[in-house]
Amino acid sequence: MTLLRLRDVRLERDGRPVLDRVSLEVSPGEVVGLLGPNGCGKTTLLRAALGLHPAAGDITLGDAPLARLSPRARARAAAYVPQAHEIAWPVSVAALVGLGRLPHRTSAAEDAAAVAAALALMDLDGLAGRPATELSGGERARALVARALAQQAPLLLADEPTAGLDPAHAVGLMATLRRLVARGRGALVSLHDLGLAARWCDRVVLAGGGRIIASGRPLDVLTPDRMAAVYGVDVFIGSDASGPILQVLGPAAAKRRAQ
């Protein structure tokens, strides 16, 4: 079964192609990293996959075309973590996370258990009663991820979920995603941290100019030549017993010579 399938998805804005015949899939058991420089269309792609941006082409969530799914059915099929970490109302953190249960018709006990599990996964147990508007930026980011986890959808779409997190919580989030997909879920996660992508993703999709440049295993895609061409940076690539290591070293050699 495929959790998400995009085929030749196209979207224009002001006559300019933002997504240009994009095709990708996400299956159960994998964390897929969506990479690319600022403005390359990552956020638009994630939002189009949920129907939040009207787009041409074929989009399937689970076994159903996106256009045939009701909003509730879409929310049961996929959970979304937006890039913006704004929280407008001073509800408690537990109540905020509990919003993830709205697509379901389950008992209060089941909802409470799902919320408690999501709070624990994101290390927010001790903040459950605090007004969400009083959280730090990193805490707000974790609370919004927890809300999506409480939704218990088979697919998670997350737009830069590690932005604003300290290193321990960023690594902790990626480890949580790995545990979730090991239980049969799938995740498509946009990232700017190439090191996290190389180490924690099963597969990465590299975007540029609204198109897919490359897709595959992290170290097959994140080559030094490609990182220099796409991001303008030199990278160190190595490994240890736990997996690949990718570290950005600085501007690419050609860029340094030009300066």
How do you describe this structure in short?
This protein is of the alpha/beta class. The chain is 34% helix and 30% strand.
Structure description:
The chain has a single domain, classed as Rossmann fold, CATH 3.40.50. Helices cover 34% and strands 30% of the residues. The chain is built from ten helices and twelve strands. The strands form three sheets. A six-stranded mixed beta sheet has the order 6-7-8-3-9-10, with helices on both faces. Helix 4 (108-121) crosses helix 5. The longest helix is centred in the C-terminal third of the chain and has 16 residues, at 167-182.
Number of helices: 10
How many domains would you count in the coordinates? 1
> Which percent range fits the helix content?
25-40%
Name the CATH architecture. Answer: 3-Layer(aba) Sandwich
User: How would you write the strand order of the largest sheet?
Assistant: 6-7-8-3-9-10
Approximate shape: globular
Q: CATH homologous superfamily, by name?
A: P-loop containing nucleotide triphosphate hydrolases
Mean pLDDT: 93
CATH class: Alpha Beta
Give the C-alpha Rg.
19 Å
Distance between the termini: 50 Å
Strand content: 25-35%
Briefly note the CATH topology name.
Rossmann fold
Number of strands: 12
Low-confidence regions: none
What is the secondary structure topology, with strand pairs?
Blueprint: E1 4-13, E2 16-26, E3 31-35, H1 42-49, E4 56-61, E5 64-65, H2 71-77, E6 78-81, H3 93-98, H4 108-121, H5 137-150, E7 155-159, H6 167-182, E8 186-190, H7 194-200, E9 203-208, E10 211-216, H8 218-221, H9 224-230, E11 233-240, E12 243-251, H10 253-258
Parallel strand pairs: 3-8, 3-9, 6-7, 7-8
Antiparallel strand pairs: 1-2, 1-4, 4-5, 9-10, 11-12
